[in-house]
Design a protein that fits this description.
The complex is a heterodimer of chains A (261) and B (431). With 261 residues, chain A is α/β, with parallel strands linked by helices. Chain A folds into two domains: 1-84 and 165-261, P-loop containing nucleotide triphosphate hydrolases (Rossmann fold, 3-Layer(aba) Sandwich), CATH 3.40.50.300; 94-164, no CATH class. Chain A has eight helices and 14 strands. Chain A has helices at residues 47-54, 77-83, 100-104, 118-131, 149-161, 179-194, 206-212, 236-245, and strands at 9-18, 21-31, 36-41, 62-67, 70-72, 85-88, 111-112, 115-116, 167-171, 198-202, 215-220, 223-229, 247-248, 251-252. In chain A, strand 11 and strand 12 (223-229) form a beta hairpin. In chain A, helix 5 (149-161) packs parallel to helix 6 (179-194). Chain A is globular and about 60 Å long. Chain B is mostly helical and 431 residues long. Chain B has a domain at 57-192 and 307-429. Chain B is built from 19 helices and four strands. Chain B has helices spanning 12-16, 20-23, 28-40, 47-63, 65-68, 71-95, 104-120, 125-150, 154-172, 184-191, 196-220, 227-248, 267-284, 286-296, 298-303, 308-334, 346-356, 368-388, 404-429, and strands at residues 179-180, 336-337, 390-391, 399-400. Chain B has a two-stranded antiparallel sheet with strand order 1-2. A two-stranded antiparallel sheet of chain B has the order 3-4. The chains are: A alpha/beta (261), B mainly alpha (431). Chains A and B meet through strand 8, helix 4, helix 6 and helix 7 of A and helix 1, helix 2, helix 14 and helix 15 of B.
Chain lengths: 261, 431
Amino acid sequence: MSETDAPILQLKGTNKSFGPVHVLHDIDFSVYPGKVTALIGDNGAGKSTLVKCVTGIYGTDSGVTLFNGVPVNIHGPKDAAALGIEVVYQDLALCENLDIVQNLFLGREKLKMGLLDEREMERLARETLASLSVRTVKSVRQQVSSLSGGQRQTVAIAKAVLWNSKVVLLDEPTAALGVAQTKQVLDLVRRLADNGLGVVLISHNMNDVIQVADRVCAMYLGRIAADVPITRETRREFLVELITSGRSGDIGLQAAAEVTI
Amino acid sequence: MSTSEATPSSSPSEAASDFSLDSEQPTFAQAIHNYRSKLRAGDLGALPALLAIIVLTALFGFSRPDTFLSVTNFANLLQQAAPVMVIAMAVSFVLLLGEIDLSAGYTAGVTAAVLALRLQNDWSLGATIVICAIVALALGTFTGVLVAKVGIPSFVVTLANFLSFQGILLLLAKEGGTIHIDNKTINAIENENMSLAVSWGFAALATALFAFTVIRKQRASNGTIPLQLAVVKIVALGAGAAIFTGVLSGNRALPAAKIKLIGVPYAVPLVIILVLVLTFLLTRTRYGRHLYAVGGNAEAARRAGINVGLIRASAFAFCGLLAGIGGAFLASRLSSVDPQTGGNDTLLLAVGAAVIGGTSLFGGKGRMLNALLGGLVLALIPNGLGLLGRATPFGIKTFDFSSSGMKFIVSGLILLLAASVDAISRKRTVT
């Protein structure tokens, strides 16, 4: 685990309040290229808010966002996409009545003389899916309604990385999947990182986190309780303690007084 | 660091084999098998409408071979169906979004009235068409803005417009008055026929165009569409067009009449051209793709950067414009416009035609061709029942099938059947 790699995306001292409710406290959060960073925490810990701050859906009250070490202002999903930051939300946002190619290129269709260039889009779709070693899709012209949950997740992820993305945030990609499909999606998550992307994996499944992530950020009541690398010695109980009490042994938020809302 | 086992390196040849269906070169028999499994999965397409056309034609043809199967009735049937088909295409635009336009019938009526009035005031045909297009577009855009920007459900907006557009039509037609149309061009749409040469020329052109598209598609498919299938399709359409034109080339004037009545009615090429243009818009342009996307999942479309409100509003605007064209067909059919033009069952037949053809009421699924096929089904019913007259099915009881009551009941039942097919096939595809 080399810590010398510069983070591709970095949040420093980020605060966010909704009226009187202070949701994010001095968040320091880094995403490294080629690494899977797991973001864990109980419901209401602030994971989703953090993701929405990263993509500019919410503005932040204070703090800086660095992209490749350069301060950037992200005011909305379009700014984020322009930088190469994509989010795959839990509901996937696919049109079931369209096929895989049509979904992958939705809103960014390739044109030839003002008309849809289907052959080019088909070719690129096949290329992207092949680069992710997706093997379970019979045809890129299959309707999404005919795909399994895992295949849909794959299409949604492919849609996010089709645009030379640098950072991909995945919101509980395995939540609704069976054992075999979970493995497929986790393999895909690993492959994204191996292809050099910075991957953020939000998950409630500690086994997934230990299996696929390189480091883990645990959030507790709006704070980053721990930001540690995952090693062979990392145990499930350790992560669960971080989630439920914000500390585990010497690691985590130390003084209970520190944790106020 | 604990990760899953090392991922196998994927060579291009290995990767290509993943999309087996994309590279597989099926034989003719396999292609038919693939089609059958598609049907079983609930994707029925236009099949129910085609079956309905065949069954109804067989039923009426068998019962009344002299009248129903006559060339006169064939031409008449096509002219009866044309306005409904055009308005069905109009409504299809909003049905694709899962919306409804109940006022499309009266949009047609108001546009028809403007058309008739302008022509009566000796406006040139060109200027009249421009003002009619503006009126139809304005009515549609009005609805679209209320639905997309203000956010009122389309059912409510168009129900209100159904009343107010009817009011406009009443004011224009002066309460029970009839506005006659003397313009030859407008009256020709639904009453005149093309000369034999033009009829055959159009059939040849249509076949050539179809052959060109099918072959282009086959070439681009890298053999996933078997060549035989393409050839069979082209030959079938060519033969169909030849028989169609051949039948309509026969004289269908009464024996005593001095002039001959031959050729394909103008309504036929006009409707076909409209279907082709709109199909092109829906399938080959970015706008069409976005229309389907909004109909399928508006939230996904919004996140993909599509201006959902604009797409919604524009669909209603298109619906208005096309309904206006349908109004011209209605006006031409009777060579006049009255307060009933576009009223009565016009709209219900149009929505019914689209749904019977296979366009989904739930949005996201449908084609322009569906409106044409469904329109034919709904024209066949009153036409056939009218000619059937009194009959005793299975020797049980004698019914007067030509009564309006019977026509409405049968049309309603067929529509229910189509909506059931839509709902059930949707259940099958969405598991």
